[in-house]
Structures are given as C-alpha cells and as structure tokens.
Amino acid sequence: MASKDPEIVRLVLGPYQTNCYLVICPETRVALAIDPAVRTEGIMRAAQQRTARIEQILLTHMHPDHIAGVAGLKEATGARVLAHRLDAELITSQPVEFKPAMQTFGIQPSSLPELLPDVLLEGGETLSIGQISGTVIHTPGHTPGGVCLQLGHHLFSGDTLFAQGVGRVDLPGGNLEMLLQSLQRLFTLPAETAVYPGHGPSTTIGAEKEDNPYVR
Ligand SMILES: [Zn+2]
Ligand SMILES: [Zn+2]
What we know:
Layout: E1 7-13, E2 18-24, E3 30-34, H1 40-49, E4 53-58, H2 64-67, H3 70-77, E5 80-84, H4 85-93, H5 98-104, H6 112-115, E6 119-121, E7 126-129, E8 132-138, E9 147-151, E10 154-158, E11 161-162, E12 165-166, H7 176-186, E13 194-197, E14 203-204, H8 205-211
Helix pairs in contact: 1-3
C-alpha cells in the first residue's frame, strides 16, 4: 500500500497529445516518468522545476506515441526503463504496420534497440518511488504487454482505459476479449480510485464503471 500521496504532474506531449506523467515522492524527490512521448527537454525542465530526480521510466505500452522520448530521457537521467516483456517482443519483431508510425515519431528501425527496456515486467511487481510503492497490473488488449500502475488510490491506465473510452484493439497485437477482461480487472479497484490515462482528462474508476459507453 502507498503510505503517502505522490505529487503527480501531467505533460501533454507530441502529435497524438500523449499524457506523460511525473510521479514524485514528496519526501525524497525521487521521481518516476511514465510514457516519455517526446521532447526530453520539457520533461527534464518539469522535473528540475520541482527539484525531482527521475530514476525510473515506466512504459505503459510500447506504441510510438508513448516511447519516442525514452532513449533521450534515459540518456539525460540514467534512469532505468521498465516495460512488459510482451510489448518488448512486439517491438523487436517489428511488424511492418509499426514502421510508418515509428518514423512519424523520428524512430528509425536502427534505433529500435535503444528503446528496449532494462527491466522486463510480467505484471504483479511492486514498484518503489522513494517512499511510495505501487503495483504493476498487466492489462493486455490494446497491446499484449499493456500495463497499468496502481499507487494507492491512483491508477495510471495507459491506453487501456480513458475517460469515456477504451483503447483501440485494431492495431498489431490488439485483442478485444483481453481488453474487456483487463477492464473487468480494473473495475475491481475502489470506485474513488483516480484514473490518469494515456490521452485526455483524468477520471475515476467509479465514473467509468457507471458511464463508459464501451463497457456495458
Ligand atoms: Zn497505444
Ligand atoms: Zn497512445
């Protein structure tokens, strides 16, 4: 269980308006960056303004709009990168469908190895950010290796769950049945859990359980 509330900073980055989050331990100023979409400088400036030190980078999944800034941010901070094993495998196998999208974000096939995580997740891991700790939840469906991070009553949901929406399942590795199962898993969390998605505004588990048109 998280003993303290983290400071949460949202940065909206890149052509797909991806939410990048900084999660900062108020006691130690240690930070986790989630989904460094682009523009390492913007993320670094946001951390510096808050005297936060980025020690880890979590990729909720490995779509180009969530990972284009990862190599730069890792180089600038020395942080270790965490992502689910199945998405790392998806990237390595490089389905042809991904190539144009990767190039839109300035990622060349030759730079793919730089994007690979230092820590391969399976789901269920405990992740510590200074004095705060949370749990990685494997939520396949949008991609095979999608993960959410639960920190007490905060949930970072990537492209699995949005305010009034869910992740698309028509991209390589997408699976509707799995997405619905993942959503059911998330809906077992307390209703007051705040949800911070990969795109768009924040919401709560309770609001989405009630109102989300995709989960009837
Ligand atoms: Zn995605
Ligand atoms: Zn996305």
